[in-house]
Write a structure and sequence with these properties.
The protein has one helix spanning 3-16, and strands at 37-42, 49-54, 57-62, 89-94, 99-107, 112-120, 127-133, 139-149, 156-160, 165-166, 172-174, 176-177. With 199 residues, it is mainly beta. Strands 1, 4, 7, 8, 9 and 11 form a 6-stranded mixed beta sheet that branches. Strands 2, 3, 5, 6, 10 and 12 form a 6-stranded antiparallel beta sheet that branches. A hairpin with a 6-residue loop joins strand 8 (139-149) and strand 9.
Length: 199
């Protein structure tokens, strides 16, 4: 066997292994939607995602702009309804009348996290807000509201959204350890394996 053939055979696993690298899907707002619905996600945007389902095909992904989980604040001018929003919120257009999921995740120390996924069908021209709260103790909570104009038309208010359902545990989710070893408060991980993990 020639040297060239041997090198090609040795390099082949490197190229075929690319399919096993982690792949992240990102949410892209519709470009040419004439009458979109609007979504705002508040808190923990680095782990949030928007997914839409049409004819059995899922599109969308995480709302951050790159592979590293940084907070991705994006203000698209949605009404604030008296809220003091300064950072860690994401506003976007979505296609209306399509089954939609908003997934949110809180991630804390020692591999602890919780997930909440909210399902609904947005309507054109409506404003929707979803907020994840770390909560105290063993649970995190979420709020799903509509942003609606006051009767006098001068300002906006938040109204609970009755048209949402939840994929798992409802608007409250239990915090879980992704690595069960951390359930023991006396467990001290290898710092090379878990750098920056609070002890």
């Amino acid at each position: 066997m020639s040297l060239r053939t041997s090198l090609c055979l040795l390099a082949l696993p490197l190229f075929t292994g690319c399919q096993y690298f982690p792949h992240t899907n990102y949410f892209n707002a519709p470009d040419n939607e004439p009458n979109p619905a609007w979504i705002r996600i508040v808190n923990y945007t680095q782990h949030a995602g928007i997914y839409q389902y049409e004819n059995g095909v899922r599109s969308g992904g995480v709302i951050r702009s790159g592979p590293l989980p940084f907070i991705n604040t994006q203000d698209m001018g949605m009404p604030k309804a008296g809220q003091n929003l300064t950072s860690d919120y994401y506003e976007t257009r979505v296609r209306p009348d399509i089954k939609t999921e908003v997934s949110m995740m809180w991630e804390g120390p020692r591999t602890r996290s919780c997930y909440i996924t909210i399902k609904f069908t947005p309507k054109a021209g409506r404003y929707y807000q979803f907020m994840l709260n770390e909560g105290s103790g063993d649970f995190c909570t979420s709020d799903a509201v509509l942003i609606e104009r006051d009767k006098d038309g001068a300002s906006w208010h938040l109204t609970p959204n009755p048209d949402v359902t939840y994929k798992y545990d409802g608007p409250t989710a239990k915090k879980r350890f992704n690595n069960s070893s951390f359930e023991d408060p006396n467990f001290h991980p290898n710092p090379e394996q878990y750098p920056g993990t609070a002890l």
